[in-house]
From TrEMBL:
<keyword id="KW-0573">Peptidoglycan synthesis</keyword>
<feature type="domain" description="Mur ligase N-terminal catalytic">
    <location>
        <begin position="27"/>
        <end position="95"/>
    </location>
</feature>
<keyword id="KW-0132">Cell division</keyword>
<keyword id="KW-0133">Cell shape</keyword>
<keyword id="KW-0961">Cell wall biogenesis/degradation</keyword>
<dbReference type="GO" id="GO:0009252">
    <property type="term" value="P:peptidoglycan biosynthetic process"/>
</dbReference>
<dbReference type="InterPro" id="IPR013221">
    <property type="entry name" value="Mur_ligase_cen"/>
</dbReference>
<keyword id="KW-0963">Cytoplasm</keyword>
<dbReference type="InterPro" id="IPR035911">
    <property type="entry name" value="MurE/MurF_N"/>
</dbReference>
<dbReference type="InterPro" id="IPR036565">
    <property type="entry name" value="Mur-like_cat_sf"/>
</dbReference>
<dbReference type="Pfam" id="PF02875">
    <property type="entry name" value="Mur_ligase_C"/>
</dbReference>
<comment type="similarity">
    <text>Belongs to the MurCDEF family. MurF subfamily.</text>
</comment>
<feature type="domain" description="Mur ligase central">
    <location>
        <begin position="109"/>
        <end position="295"/>
    </location>
</feature>
<keyword id="KW-0436">Ligase</keyword>
<dbReference type="GO" id="GO:0005737">
    <property type="term" value="C:cytoplasm"/>
</dbReference>
<dbReference type="InterPro" id="IPR005863">
    <property type="entry name" value="UDP-N-AcMur_synth"/>
</dbReference>
<keyword id="KW-0547">Nucleotide-binding</keyword>
């Protein structure tokens, strides 16, 4: 982060300086009193189960030079205190101010699934020509995005920012911070449909990203997604549609799976054909690669370097992470889950299994509301239709997965259900044998990695 002066902060957040020196200089922004460093500005946030205001004194004692506050707070000798009406809004406002200091290309990414992999793919491509800032981990919400922005410094030449949401207005607030020059929407699925009610509403919420898009900017959209392709000729921005269907602006063809080694496809860039290799399994990653290629073309990365960037892509932790342990092959995809990503992961399981027995260990998909039972049944049906040998369902909706699998032809003696991860792991540890291939996947709240950890000791 570049330094911020106290007077800048006061002006940016519309606050009132109630103690301390106006010429104080801050070197970093922190919302976590446990990780305070010398020279920080502490921003105490209020959540359902915590109130950062309780830790203002501790933050100041451990090196913070100042703090924001939305509550009446006793002055702290020699430290800055700035009164604001809402500390979360102040965090956003300060990020808006700080982002405007950087005249570099910003890429904003949203969508129902594939956001993080697309972010990593775009960053891999842009790293061939720029020093790139990107969100770390799941820093894609109303706290994580501002903190990502504060990581910018003068050395950065481009930024790639993933934006998550669960309801209306969230993307709007995030895009107002990021002000992207390029906006990507990966797809429109049923993630968060519990709050939004329909896929059309999800589309509407994702389209909020355009509110912050530079008027001369570029929208990059998945043209194989019917709802997104429905925006063709309706947006006021330049638009690139990517996918595998005929007639799109950027199209992958001759797509070939290499199993565990990834996949390849051909693409035409500026009249010349290139063969692209993705080093991780799953045909769905072709879409993430196409988004990365589109950004690379827009920002002038030479095609040969774009292809190099895709080949150097690495997925995030617990995202189709293949672990070989004592003869078992485990696909740890426990980071999150939706109906679309479940089907994609099951495809990967089938694709890399070889001669081994296949196990789909599937946990609950959360935030699906009234669609929960039917969505879990469909996942069970899909696993059975792909010929998965054993289906192990875990969680509240386990019986719906099992029912769907049996209805699709799975034999009852090959379908198992467990209330929690511990019971499932105990069963699997006794049942699996060398040569077996397991997919472990569920929503983040299910913590399915617990099963992986037990199986791998």
């Amino acid at each position: 982060m570049e330094i911020l002066k106290c007077e800048e902060v006061v002006k940016a957040v519309g606050g009132t300086l109630i103690s301390g020196e106006v010429n104080t200089v801050f070197y970093n922004i922190s919302t976590d009193s446990r990780n305070i460093k010398q020279g920080d500005l502490f921003i105490p946030l209020i959540g359902e189960r915590f109130d950062g205001h309780n830790y203002i004194a501790s933050a100041l004692e451990h090196g913070a030079l100042g703090s924001l506050t939305q509550k009446e707070t006793e002055p702290f000798p020699g430290k800055v205190l700035i009164k604001v009406s809402d500390t979360l809004k102040a965090l956003r406002d300060l990020a808006v101010y700080y982002r405007q200091k950087f005249k570099i290309p910003f890429v904003g990414i949203t969508g129902s699934v594939g956001k993080t992999s697309t972010k990593e793919m775009v960053a891999a491509v842009l790293s061939k020509g720029f020093k790139v800032l990107k969100n770390q981990g799941n820093f894609n919400n109303e706290i994580g995005v501002p903190l990502t922005i504060f990581n910018l410094d003068k050395s950065h030449e481009a930024a790639v920012v993933e934006m998550g949401m669960s309801g209306f207005g969230e993307i709007s607030r995030l895009t107002s911070i990021v002000k992207p020059d390029i906006a990507i929407i990966t797809n429109i699925g049923v993630s968060h449909i519990e709050k939004l009610g329909s896929k059309n509403n999800i589309l509407k919420a994702k389209m909020e990203i355009f509110e912050g898009l530079n008027e001369k900017g570029l929208a990059i959209l998945n043209g194989d997604d019917k709802l997104l392709y429905g925006l063709n000729n309706l947006l006021k921005f330049r638009t690139v549609f990517y996918g595998m269907e005929e007639g799109l602006d950027l199209r992958a063809y001759n797509v070939e799976s290499l199993g565990e080694k990834g996949s390849t496809f051909d693409i035409e860039i500026r009249g010349k054909e290139y063969r692209v290799r993705i080093p991780v399994p799953g045909i769905h990653n072709v879409y993430n690669a196409l988004a990365g290629i589109a950004v690379g073309i827009e920002l002038g990365i030479p095609p040969e370097k774009i292809v190099e960037g895709i080949e150097e892509f690495s997925p995030g932790k617990m995202r189709l992470d293949i672990i070989n342990y004592n003869g078992l092959k485990i696909i740890n995809d426990a980071y999150n889950a939706s109906p679309q990503s479940m089907e994609a992961a099951i495809d990967v399981l089938k694709d890399i299994s070889g001669e081994g027995r296949t196990f789909a260990v599937l946990g609950d998909m959360l935030e699906l509301g009234e669609f929960s039972k039917s969505a879990h049944m469909e996942v069970g049906k899909y696993a059975a239709s792909k010929g998965i040998d054993y289906i192990v369902a875990v969680g509240e909706y386990r019986s719906n997965i099992v029912r769907g699998a049996v209805e699709a032809g799975a034999k009852e003696e090959k379908v198992f259900e467990f209330k929690d991860n511990m019971d499932a792991a105990k069963f699997l540890k006794e049942f699996v044998k060398s040569g077996d291939v397991l997919l472990v996947k569920g929503s983040r709240g299910m913590k399915m990695e617990e099963i992986v950890n037990i199986l791998t000791g």
